[in-house]
Every structure is written in structure tokens, then in C-alpha cells.
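hey so i finaly got around to running the thing on Pyridoxal phosphate-dependent transferase from Schizophyllum amplum. pasting the sequence first so u can double check i didnt mess up the copy paste, my clipboard has been acting weird all day
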Amino acid sequence: MLRSTTKTALSSVARQSTRSASTYGALHDFGTHHVNKGVGRLVPGIMEKGEGSYVTYEDGRKMLDFTCGIGVTNLGHCHPKVSKAAAEQCMKIVHSQNSISFHRPYLELIERLLPTMPDPSLDSFFFWNSGSEAVEGALKMARLMTGRKGFICMQGAYHGRTYGAMAVTKSKTIYSEGTGPLMPMVYTAPYPYFHQLGLSPDSTPEEHTRAALHQLQLLFKQQIRPDSVAAIIIEPLLGEGGYVPAPTSYLKALRELCDKHGILLIVDEVQSGFARTGKWWCIEHSGVRPDIMTFAKGLANGFPLSGIVSRKELTDKLKPGCMGGTYAGNAVSCAAAIAVCDAVKEEKILENVDVRSKQLFAALESLRSDPEVGKYLLDVRGQGLMAAIEFARPPQDIDIDLATEGVEGCPSNFAARVGKKCIEKGMLILTTSIYEVLRIIPALNVSEADMAKGCEIITQAVKEVAKEG
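ok and heres what it spat out for the C-alpha cells, dont ask me to read them lol
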């Protein structure tokens, strides 16, 4: 009797939940209750529609989006050419499992990507679903290709939240806390960033390179021999760790070290690739050749797709069947990515990134030179439309941030408060890293007017937070 009563009660709750989900407020509450608590959310509400640089919520709010889904919708929301290509592919074939047969969009996407590669040696592709999976595949390939087990990753790096990717992610403890042991034989070297090297904010890229290479050489001497290292993995522009471009001198030195010791260089372009920094690939700014490159995010403008590219002479060492995945290289996602490649060229996206980047950095530098708030801006940095403002840490946090010793600190949680102000003013924006960093990731085809609007919102938000203290 008790069991029957309980079952009836549960059924009643389920019916009520379904009915209550028919209205906006109730649906939001329904989601808050039933969506896994491990998923965080920045803005309350239900995003209903996206178009270009704007998103509209179900309650009618329309917001300028300077997050692009964390660098995914690079061509703006619901780009008509991309959506049309995906819709047309849906009427041909949606799923063609990659271990059974080729499908046309997979091969045509390779045709589009080959001319964009940062080095002509990168000619062997595998498509997966997410950035984390691409990193997992790159790590697996590196071990198989070299017969070695060790990896060196960078302090502050973010490569994903699956187990291999978590092992080489060093940006925040939240991503892996309580989940160990992680993949073994992973060693961490400092990224060439003044915070991680105990240098002052006005130190030079050359100083960063020297200090970071010194620590890497110590790692070789004290923790793992170079001939045990399968690969070094690096983001050419540190993403989650603070939007920090790696000095060209450091990347070139890594290439030389890898060549000298038979180590593969994995370049993670998941966030920085696909025109985000003003070139097809961020690593092009340095002229350095990757052995393996991972990419995702902007590749298909919101459709799940990632890729790993390497040299055929290396991938020919792999046994058929060792790489795969049920949804890997989905036909609809590949069709969307082909349309993205075409749109980047036809709509002169790289040219727009160059112009809008200059507009953005001019506004940020103007803010830094403002006598009212400039003292709080520790750094303005980035490349293309992957930009950041770092604010000085508050004085009470100086014990964990020795590099800012002697710098006048800003009020506590400055970046988060600026981000909240921006949201209140109608613009989505994100913070990042363990430092006071505001990251700016607008659509690559953002208009001059919308860029000006976004810059004005940021400026107002910074001034208001500084005034509040």
C-alpha cells in the first residue's frame, strides 16, 4: 500500500513539473531543479534566439554578446549561410559513421582546411566532437607515435575536463578537484607570463622567455628526461589562464627543443584558431610549425565539431581502428564547417578582425590612460579579437601574487564586478583565470557600431566599479 501511494505521489509530481514547465518562470525553475548542479550559469534566464552579435532571452531581454559562447559562434549567431548548409545536409545524410564509410562533407572540409594550415606538412586530419576530445586524441596519438609516455603542459593552461585533458589542464583546481588520480607522467612548466615567473608587470617578453626556458631546462634535469617526453602541449595564446600571447621567441625555442630531443609539439588552437586572432591560426604569428594541432570552437560556428591535424608520416604509424568515435566528424557539423570556411573568405572576416581589433585596443588603451581608472589596469593584451584587461590585485591578495608587489591594487573582485555591470547594461561578457581578468570575445564579423557600443559599456562599467571602491 505504501509503495503504491509513493508511486502515485511521484507520478503526480512529474505531471505537475511538466505542466509547470509550460510558462517561462516555471520552466526556468524547472531547469534550476533538474539540470546537474555541476553546470554553472552566468546569467539567469532562458536564451531563446540568437542573431549576429545579439541574443534574445525568453523574457524579451536583448543583449549584445561579447562571449560568442566562449569563442564558438565566431561568425555571429545563426549565420544564414552556415545554418542553410546544415539544414540542406540534414536532408541528405545526418549520420555516416566514420569507421564505416567516408561522407562527402568530411572530405570537402579537409579540402577547405588544407590551404589554411600554418605549415604545409600538416596534411592528415581526424574530426571529433569537442575540444576536450581533440586533446585526448592528440595525447593518445603522441604516445603511439613516439613510444614515450611523458607530457609537459603549461601552468595556467586549459585543455578540457575529460581525464587526459584534465591532467594537462592547470588553470583552476575546480576542473579536477576530487577526481584524481589523473593521467600519470604529466609535468608542468611555467607559461611565459609575468605572474607565473615572479616578474614585474612591466617586464619584457624576452625576460619572460628566458625565465620560462630556464624553468623548463630545470624540469628536464630534475623531473623527467627529454627522451621520456612524448609531447609538449601549449596554447599559443593562453585562454582560460588569462588571455596571454606566448612570445614568439619562446615558441621558437620550444620548436628547437622538440626537434633536438625528438619531442612532438602539440599546439592547442581550440579557442585561438579559426581567424580569432587575425590569422587563420594563432601559431602563424610566430611562424612555428606544430607536429600536432587541435582545433574546435569556431570551426563549425556552434555545431559540435573538433579536429586533430598532423603529418601523414606520423599518422601512418597508427593502426586502423585506434582512432574513432560514434559521432566523430558528423556530416551536418562538417557541412556547417565548410560554410564557415567559405564565409571567412567571401565576407573578408580576417580584414574585419584587423580593423575591429584596432578599434577595440584603442578603446582599451584609452581607458588605461584615463587618470581616474588607469591605475587599476595592470595590463591590456591579446591578439585580434581575443583580448583582455587585467586589473591589479587588491592589496590583501598580494601574498599570493608576488608579481604585483608595489602595484596599487584595485577594489576586491574588480573584474567580476565589471562583468556584472556589463551584463546589467545589456552585454554578455566573461572573466577568466585566477587573476582579475576580463576577457573580450566578440563575433569576428562584429560591426563598427556594435564594437563601439561594447567598448562604451566596458568603459562605463570600469568607471562605475572604480568609483564604488
